[in-house]
Amino acid sequence: MKFKTHQYAKHWTSTTSTASDPQEIEEARRSASQLERLLAETLTSENLVILTGLGTSLCVKDVAGNSIAPTMSALWDAAKSKTKGFDKLLAKVNHPKLPSGEWKIDLETLLSRCQMSAELSGDADTLGFISESEALIANMCDFLGLLPSGVGLPVHESFLRKIAKRPTRLPRTKLFTTNYDLCFETAAATAGFIMIDGFSHTNPQGFDGIHFDYDIVRRENDSEVPLFVPNVLQLLKLHGSVDWDRGADGQVRRQPKPKKPVIIYPRSGKFESSYNQPYFEMMSRFQSALRAPNTALLMVGFGCNVTLPSECVSLSGPGFEDI
Questions:
Q1: Where are the domains of the chain?
Q2: What is the average pLDDT across 50-61?
Q3: Predicted pLDDT of residue 308
Q4: By the 8 A CB rule, do 91 and 191 touch?
Q5: DSSP single-letter state for residue 207
Q6: How far are the Cα atoms of 42, 88, 106, 162 from residue 99, in angstroms, in the given order?
Q7: What pLDDT digit, counting tens, does each position of 151-172 carry?
Q8: CB of 67 within 8 A of CB of 143?
Q9: Higher per-residue pLDDT: 294 or 273
Q10: Burial class of residue 281 (count of CB atoms within 10 Å of its CB; 0-12, 13-18, 19+)
């Protein structure tokens, strides 16, 4: 595994070594010890913020050991196989090519160009491709049904145990994710953790940001002092979820298998979409969480094409299961 922090190392530092040089092996050992201390400090910080991305879903595998969560290249291949005249469409929207002359495999750029082209021309084929691709993305990201019977999410459950078992006197862990899937919700239900995710406890469950300000407490019969229940954390899905549905009244509700899930699809317009609710609520709370004093940010399975803020730990490795 490799790690990078603003405070201790501005470059990726490896905790393992394949070299036979004793000095390199010793450096890797010291790096592993440093990472262990750093993670211990992070997990016991006053305010713990977790940011996760696709990498945390790639550890979910079938019986053959293959990841069932789709990567961006897998989504591209699926869109290509299901679209007649795919190359013709790419040429129509002027999708970029590589120096070799092959199309650049970049679904986000393709959908961005398709959206722009559709707004300018109203081409039916382009609009149809956008609609079909969005449905394909939502369907492929709802992948937990592909797991064999009896196979759970042990890696996610183990991770939740590490980040949620904190003293109840400390603020709840805030877990932010850009993933659409239901891995963390499913793992929490199996492991007995409570997720505060912005939805009400009514039926159907409706979203309202005020629910993030609520907490779970227990009141003993012989005590007037409420006790905070352990194993509770907040889950904030920055890009939406495959089980979010927007009704005719504009209210977002949780519903299994909605026809058009409330998610931010991969295209340039995602930045504009993030100013709409409920995404704006999630992003605002993410920014507020980072501004809080004595805050540690742990990034897991997330692309690090950004400048790391102070008190930030970023991890990179062959799998989420290494954490």
A1: 44-66+148-322, 72-142
A2: 92
A3: 47
A4: no
A5: B
A6: 44, 19, 15, 46
A7: 889 999 999 998 888 888 899 9
A8: no
A9: 294
A10: middle
